[in-house]
Design goal:
Layout lengths: L5 H14 L6 H11 L22 H22 L6 H30 L12 H12 L12 H21 L5 H15 L3 H6 L10 E4 L6 H9 L6 E2 L4 E2 L7 E5 L5 H9 E2 L11 E2 L1 H4 L5 E5 L6 H13 L1 E2 L8 E2 L3 E6 L3 H6 L5 H7 L2 E4 L3 H7 L3 H14 L1 H19 L8 H15 L12 H11 L4 H16 L2 H8 L3 H7 L2 H10 L13
Parallel strand pairs: 1-10, 1-11, 4-7, 7-10
Antiparallel strand pairs: 2-3, 5-6, 8-9
Length: 527
Amino acid sequence: MPFLTTGERSFLQAVAKLGYCNPFLPERVEYEREVLGPDFEESEAIWSLRVDDPDTPRVNPLKIVARVEVLVGKLRKRLASGTSATERDLFLYEDAVLFLLFHRYQDHFYQAIVQEEKPQPPRKRFEFYQEFLHDWEYYFGLPTFPFPTREEAPHLFACFFQVRRAFHHIFRHIIGSSMIAARLRAAVWQSIFTHDMRRYRRSLYQRMGDFTTLITGPSGTGKELVARAIALSRYLPFHPDTLTFREDFTRLFYAINLSALPTTLVESELFGHRRGAFTGALQDKQGWLELCPPLGTVFLDEIGDLDPAVQVKLLRVLQTRQFQRLGETTAREFHGKLIAATNRNLYEAMQRGQFREDLYYRLCSDLIVTPSLYEQLRESPAVLGELLLFIAQRVVGPTEAERLAREAEAWIMTCLGPDYPWPGNIRELEQCVRNVLIRREYHPPERTPLSWKEELLQAFHSGSLTAEELLCRYCTLVYAQTRSYEETARRLQLDRRTVKRKIDPQLLARCRTASPAPQQRGAPGQP
């Protein structure tokens, strides 16, 4: 009898593809359908958290694991009896066993995650590794099976724990059944494991800290949540002798909001300082780059607001992995991972000279874009109810959550309407829920548009105008006062034809609406 029949080989090939795919991409659905055939549950096509019943097990994975367990048992008996198999078929057997072992112990890993997330958790020993190792030996410890070796068991155990942590942090905290939300979950998964899980397992698990992740998107769309999910899902080596992992994953995330600190304090927080380096530096201080361990992550929020002088120093960190404390010349090493986020358009900031191009191209090896709430609701209006229930559970607990969510949704539909743009995104939606809870109503702040003078003054003070934009607006402003190209050219000492080219018609219309035509010499509107 051959080691694998044609049908068994096709089944294991589909299982292998499923085991190494991104669980949040549509391909997972196709692979599950390929494995189960007519038994596939179509209702589970989009894999997102059921806020109303988060602990309901998924039917499709349970069916698949049961089938894999039966077939793997048969194949082990064939190997034990001396049935010969090709290397390709042995790899399929290996993939199936790893698929089975992960699902057999994923609940153990989940309980460990929940335990670690509690305040001041005890240092946990993973006692069930001994049971895992026993299963490993049972399936792989055969004279006719040359791989994987026993020495690889701790590494695969660590990979399983990482996969379970990543799924937990992505699935539980990036919610919504829209395809936009599903694509965001898939993007975060790729930031952790890349698109090739086999390559990651072989070698990349040691190198992902070398890649910087840049998260962009409107304010209030969960950029820090994405950064936290990536940081808490990094690979942690497992020590089989002590049955512990090298680090506690809950203590490896260091977040700094750059826009909330003055430049000197930003440098001190990032790089540290020496006593006397500046006024108020009364003692030596370690910065986050120094405190962050090799398996940790530093998150720089609002990096678009970083002072140009600090941008240069951060660029050196990304290029050489070295930095210096303020007031010192000693080079120190940064061994962790860096994640940055901004709600600004960095491309426009680079064009205006406000953000260094070389720094941007050091940051953008891995890009994630968080969608606005309006985008999600436009694609899938039902997401509003899911998000409201999720927020209500955090605000009032599970007992009152459903009632509060219904009240908030009724207010939104009646008073704001389904097309309200939610400029504050998820953060605004949460405040809406809190307002409805306290006052049974929510009124968004009135957004009065800036006058053209206020816009020009704001742009001037922020330094956001190019020289060309500044000239166009200034020419338009003076022409709105003089109503004469000749007079405008005389005042600005420019050629009349240049002035005519620089006039902005839209800005001119706003200027004329705001100010009556002046009484002056010369022909108004003179061409």
